[in-house]
Structure formats: C-alpha cells, structure tokens
Amino acid sequence: MEIGPKLRELRIAKNLTQEELADRAELSKGFISQLERDLTSPSIATLVDILQCLGTTINEFFSEDPEEQVVFHYEDYFEKEDTELLNKTEWIIPNAQKNMMEPIRLTLKPGGSTYRDVPHEGEEFGYVLKGTVKIHIGKKVYTAKKGESFYFTPHSEHYIEAPNSTGATIIWVSTPPSF
DNA sequence: GCATGCACGAATTGGAGAGC
DNA sequence: GCTCTCCAATTCGTGCATGC
C-alpha cells in the first residue's frame, strides 16, 4: 500500500511543512520527505507518532471505509429446508456468523422441530410471528405463542418444536459462542 | 532450550544543495 | 529564504550460528 501520497495530503491539509511535521513527530525532515515519496516505510511506532501529529489514528488512516450493507432483501437470504425435521431455516442476514448476532427466520411445519443443539456459550432470543412453539431447554419445556418472545442462555441441550396441530414461524437470534 | 555474538538490511538522521 | 530532495553515516532490529 502506498502511504506516502496519503501522508502528504494529510500534512498539507493541516498546513504543515515537512520540517514542521518532522519536528512534531521528533523525526528528521529528510525522513518525512522519503516517506511521502514512498522511498521508505516507517515502523508502526513511527507511523502512529506521525498520524497523531496529523490528528488521526492508524485505524482511520488504513480504513477503506467500505459501504456497510444495512438493509437486506429477500434475494440476500439463504435458506435450507430439512424435510426430516419439517423445518425451513432462512438466514435473513447473510454471513452473520461473523457478527455478534445471527438472526434467522425459522418456519416449522406442524410437528416440525429444530435439531437438538448442544450446550454452548452465548444467548438465544426468539419472537413468534405465527403459531405456537414449545422451547425445550434441558428437561424444561416452555410455550410461546404469536406475539410472544423468549430469551435464554443455552447452557443445556435445547431445541424448538411446533405442535402437531399448528405450524409456527419465528425470528430467532443467537449470539455465537465467541461473544 | 536459552544466551551470546555477529552480519546484514532496514530505518533514521542531518548536512548539503537545488528549485522556486 | 523557504521548501524539498539527495545521500552518506549512524542506529536499530532481526535472523542465524555457536556454545553452554
């Protein structure tokens, strides 16, 4: 990556000469000149000093400022249907495993269920959009119907099922173990 | 495995000089 | 005179070999 032109741009924006910047960063003016022409590369410590003098941080300096996707559309979704367990999982935020939250829309056919998840770190939250679900956490069973929500820490084996009479659709948000 | 010494390259300095 | 570039010299960091 060429940092020289970017450094020069920042220095000029601050109305500083190479000598003034060198004084502030406790470096030589010759070295600043070489840096701006990409004839040499600074150590991390030196770059941090220079950027401090230019009123910025190393994070901002190297940030490419990518456009963050905020709104996700149906075509962004990834879905998987399990004909054995009678459920359909839609990852409504793609690649969310790397985020702090992993939201999915889960549709359970009558008598359908999720797979039995082993205990893990993190937290689980759900909101029932349609129907009724039974939440199995260890040996306990909780019921939540349309408009209700549930929240638990998955320290025991857990899964969700829909009664034989009705199916259900829920929004399910879990946090990965690393969080 | 750890400490020491050595060699080498990269980082940095600071004076000299060129261009405007 | 100010700003910038060039370049030789110095300092620093790292990898490698050697000995304990």
From TrEMBL:
Keywords: DNA-binding. SMART domains: HTH_XRE (SM00530). Residues 7-61 form the HTH cro/C1-type domain. One of its GO terms (cellular component) is cytosol. InterPro entries: Cro/C1-type_HTH, Cupin_2, Lambda_DNA-bd_dom_sf, RmlC-like_jellyroll, RmlC_Cupin_sf, TransReg_Diox_bact_type. One of its GO terms (molecular function) is DNA-binding transcription factor activity. This is Cupin domain-containing protein. It comes from Clostridium scindens (strain JCM 10418 / VPI 12708).
